[in-house]
Design goal:
about 400 residues, 17 helices, three-stranded mixed sheet, extended, mainly alpha
């Protein structure tokens, strides 16, 4: 069991490093949750892995992480928000096709990512079930068809059904539309403009856009637009109610997840819960004015005055006996705490030296051309920062001493 947990921890550590490398940002925060994967600014939430998942869906999890990391690298929320409308279907299509643009741009940069995401879409298509909600199926159709056309990766199976849906809607403009999108693959602004034009022709956009309310888009059929507006307003109200419900449920799920993780893993601090214990900035002035009423009845005793050396040895022996069975757990938690608190240590090397460690990366040149000299490297001496941890234990009369031990 302990070996499996170590494997999971190493995988999570490796995945976190990969996400930060792909996203080109050290400020990315990676969390592992019980719910589905998501992204919020610089925070990426990935599904908590287990041994069964690592065995059967290792590359799928990597693909999810790759896709979210690419979104941080190639996507700007400010640009995306400019092209949002009050039509939920149009916004869903915009988000789906933008995600395909991100994945296509990343697939051209990283071949490994291209293969991971391609296989992920094939798996998603194989288990995808057609829903009665027509809008959901249209969004999925735009998602898979745009990915296929932008990457030129050939999806099959149920993909052909989705492709027929989009071909039926776009008609003769199918190839022209995706050709224009491919030209703007690295230009999010131009890409969104081209997508907005086709959505407007399909009648998915309302007159007033969120990003440009002063310049309404003219439509030919005013009567149809009035009906669409009424329908979309009712859909928007329902969508808002569903969103509020989702926010409440996600909040409850996150609270349950944090509490369950706290019970399972001793020593993992919940930052969100501890923030409530700290005073607000507004109350700092009041704290400075605080004065104790009297210290007449206070009693201060030094620790060495409470018991002699023999008593300390006896208590130490008693403690060692009680925690003997917990030594593996203590070692694991100690290592985890050390990784969290340890100061960052960057190693630097000097290359092309006459002596030191053999530079194995240059051996291939020596084999192909023996006239090349052996190259050595040497690590630079750098002072590493130490991390000091202080523990303050409240063992006053109001605290149960047995629980402390």
């Amino acid at each position: 069991m302990l070996l499996n947990e170590d494997i999971i921890e190493e995988f999570k550590k490796s995945l976190t490093s990969t996400v930060k490398s792909i996203g080109k940002s050290e400020s990315i925060e990676v969390n592992f949750v019980q719910d589905k994967s998501s992204i919020d600014g610089q925070v990426i939430n990935l599904i908590e892995p287990d041994i069964k998942t690592l065995t059967n869906k290792l590359n799928y999890m990597r693909a999810e992480a790759d896709s979210l990391a690419l979104e941080i690298r190639f996507h700007k929320k400010s640009v995306h928000d400019k092209y949002l409308s009050s039509n939920d279907l149009a916004n869903g299509i915009l988000k789906a096709v933008e995600q395909s643009r991100i994945e296509a741009q990343g697939s051209k940069t990283f071949k490994g990512i291209n293969e991971n995401i391609f296989n992920k879409h094939k798996i998603d298509l194989s288990i995808s079930n057609f829903q009665k909600n027509e809008e959901t199926e249209i969004i999925k159709a735009f998602k898979y068809v745009s990915y296929n056309e932008l990457t030129k990766n050939n999806l099959d199976g149920k993909f052909n059904i989705y492709k027929n849906i989009i071909k039926k809607k776009l008609g003769s403009k199918f190839n022209v539309f995706f050709d224009e999108l491919r030209k703007n693959l690295t230009n999010q602004e131009g890409f969104a403009q081209q997508l907005q034009l086709i959505l407007n022709e399909l009648g998915y956009l309302e007159q007033n856009l969120k990003g440009d309310q002063k310049e309404p888009i003219d439509h030919e059929d005013n009567l149809e637009n009035e009906d669409d507006n009424q329908k979309n307003q009712s859909d928007q109200k329902e969508g808002k109610m569903e969103t509020d419900h989702d926010i409440e449920s996600s909040t409850q799920d996150s609270q349950q997840t944090s509490s369950s993780e706290g019970d399972q893993e001793i020593g993992d601090d919940s930052i969100n819960n501890e923030l409530d214990y700290f005073p607000n900035i507004k109350s700092f002035d009041k704290i400075k004015d605080y004065k104790y009423y009297t210290n007449e009845f206070d009693e201060i005793i030094n620790a060495e005055d409470l018991c002699d050396f023999k008593e300390l040895e006896r208590l130490r022996l008693s403690l060692d006996q009680q925690v003997f069975s917990f030594k593996p757990l203590i070692a694991k938690i100690a290592n985890r705490l050390q990784r969290k608190l340890q100061a960052q240590q960057n190693r630097h090397w000097e290359f092309n030296l006459e002596e030191g460690y053999l530079d194995t990366s240059r051996l291939a040149k020596i084999i192909t051309n023996p006239t090349h000299k052996l190259s050595f490297k040497k690590e630079k001496n750098i002072e590493f920062k130490d991390t000091i941890v202080s523990l303050l234990i409240d063992n006053s009369g109001s605290i149960d001493r047995k629980s402390v031990v």
